[in-house]
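re: ur question from earlier - yeah i can do the single chain one, its not a big deal. heres the input i used so u can compare w yours
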Amino acid sequence: MTPDTAAPIRPAELAAYLAARMCHDFISPASAIVSGLDLLEDPTAQDMREDAMGLIGTSARKLADLLAFTRVAFGASASAETFDTRELEKLARGVFSHMRAELDWQVELAGVNKPAARTLLNLAQIAGAALPTGGSARVRAVEEGSSIAIAIEAVGPRARLRPEVLGGLLGEGPGEGLHGHWVQARYVHLFVTDAGGRVFADVAEEKVTLAATIPA
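and the output i got, formated as tokens:
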């Protein structure tokens, strides 16, 4: 499928949806850390101290991984314009370590520009979310002439792409779907098209394919 004409959306509205999406991602591990601390302070739950420390450690790592990932995938990441793909892989693996899907990173390019970096991370995360019961997300990127071609295949049982995510990648509104899932896809469509590129998506049985071309 190819991108459709983008439905208009106010910048403030998009920013609000993005902020809500990030808060949703962060609140779960942050709340788990607080729950672990509460257990440590509860004199009647000292027998659960080891479990509490495990909960705090796991949740803190998840929160740190999400924050590092989001800084590049959604933010400006300071003034960087070129990103080392080894660092991008590290960020992606950090997020996938908290997913059921496995990451198969096959990006051979040494570095990519900011739009391509954001596209790689966001599409990889979308692909991982498309595999709720597990599977493999293979990420590839090559330079073709004056463009960077990105292709991600999510293969696994019950592989699926939510309608609002597909619509967002095509530049459509959220419709009846969840805004938190839609806004990431719409954000991808926005910055890819702003860079002069295009986004593609295809859904088949037990397979979701995401792709993009971006000027190098």
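The CA atoms of residues 198 and 213 lie 5 Å apart. not sure if urs matches, ping me
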